[in-house]
Amino acid sequence: MNPPPEPSLKTDLPQPASSRLVFVDNLRGFLIVLVIVHHTAITYGASGSWYYNESPKTGLVSLVLTTLCAFDQSFFMGFFFLLAALFIPRSLQRRGVAGYVRERLVRLGIPLLVFLIGISPPLEYLSAWIDGGVRGNFWSFLLTDPPILKHWWPGPLWFVQTLLLFSFAYLLIGGGRVGTERPSSPTLWQVVLLGLVQTVLSFAIRFIFPIGQTVFGMQFAYFPQYVLLFAAGVWFANPKMLLNLPSHWRTPAAVTALAGAVAVPLTAVMLGGLDDKFLGGPYWQAGLAAADEAVTGYAAIIALILWFRDRIPESWSLLTDLGKNSYGIFIVHAPVLVLVSLALRGIALPPLVKFGVVAVLATAASWLISHWIRRWGGEPVRRVLG
């Protein structure tokens, strides 16, 4: 039996005659790899929460991996919200309110429910079993450790959950109206203003929700960036605005992003360590962290857009295929990464080496699984995963 033909990329925006927007798929491919790298770094020593942690969160290795994760966190999820939002107004225009709601529920709601019900409880059980907190079977774990709902956790699909909420909020606030598309790019002063607003909002919200505190999987400490970039996406309402960013911003943005990536860790080393004052509260360290995150994040986003648009060949089919499969990879990568990490648990390797090996293997396995699901799942699956 021959497999069905590989589906073409589907987005909410009809593909233009020009292939220049292929670079957006390549960007998605890069970002989804970064998501897996991020969670692998936490597995092997970076600060943060994940289902399985193998290495202690102390020492030089932890500092290196935490710096990587802090850099990632400054831009990569906000970047996903921006890219998603650029396509949403056109989707509403094409589908109408009822079609838009139905598409959001299918594309976002179904994967979220599958993860909450079918993937999260086994991962929570496995995590508790590894930590030594439980020794009974899975069903005993669910029934003797109430409430059961606490094991239905969105995990990394907090992004899908949040995007669903943002999508409906846009519908309610906009009243079903579709604004004017703005193919022009933001000015430098608009970017600076956005960064200043984010800095103030991040500093303020972290008085109540410091970095690391979650509410049903969502870290409100980072939400100012997510809200602002989602709002920017639906404001421009056109991914073609990415084509109009000035090319001469590329090098300054890249230098700024790299400098920002090491600013907070360098400050922490000079002060003798990264303490809780960087996480939130009425401290200059929290203000520095909020400002550095905004500067680093927007600079990194601009640099990556321009690098992928102007320098990365669109013919890099590897990145393009990763982009096509990015949603499926995002959904399956958590259990895949945990299983790959556990499979290599008994192999003695330096943490940074094992981090690299596991990141590559988990990415490859998640990619193959997503590719297989999309290829064999038929039209119903492709309606969800693209």
Can you tell me about this structure?
The chain is globular, with a radius of gyration of 21 Å. The protein has helices at 22-43, 59-73, 76-130, 138-144, 158-174, 188-205, 223-236, 250-271, 284-310, 317-324, 326-343, 351-376, 378-385. It is built from 13 helices and no strands. The protein has 386 residues and is mostly helical. The chain has 2 domains: 1-73 and 313-386, no CATH class; 74-308, no CATH class. Helix 1 packs across helix 10, helix 6 packs antiparallel against helix 9 (284-310) and helix 8 (250-271) packs antiparallel against helix 9 (284-310). 67% of the residues lie in helices and 0% in strands.
Write the layout of secondary structure elements.
Layout (H helix, E strand, L loop, with lengths): L21 H22 L15 H15 L2 H55 L7 H7 L13 H17 L13 H18 L17 H14 L13 H22 L12 H27 L6 H8 L1 H18 L7 H26 L1 H8 L1
Helix pairs in contact: 1-2, 1-3, 1-9, 1-10, 1-11, 1-12, 2-8, 3-5, 3-7, 6-7, 6-9, 8-9, 11-12, 12-13
Distance between the termini: 23 Å
**What are the secondary-structure elements, in order, as H or E?**
HHHHHHHHHHHHH
Q: What about the largest sheet?
A: none
DSSP strand content: under 5%
Structural class: mainly alpha
Helix content: 55-70%
Q: Figure out the total of helices.
A: 13
Question: So what's the overall shape?
Answer: globular
**Mean model confidence by pLDDT:** 88
Low-confidence stretches: 1-20
Oligomer: single chain
The total domain count is 2
Rg computed from alpha carbons, rounded to a whole number of angstroms: 21 Å
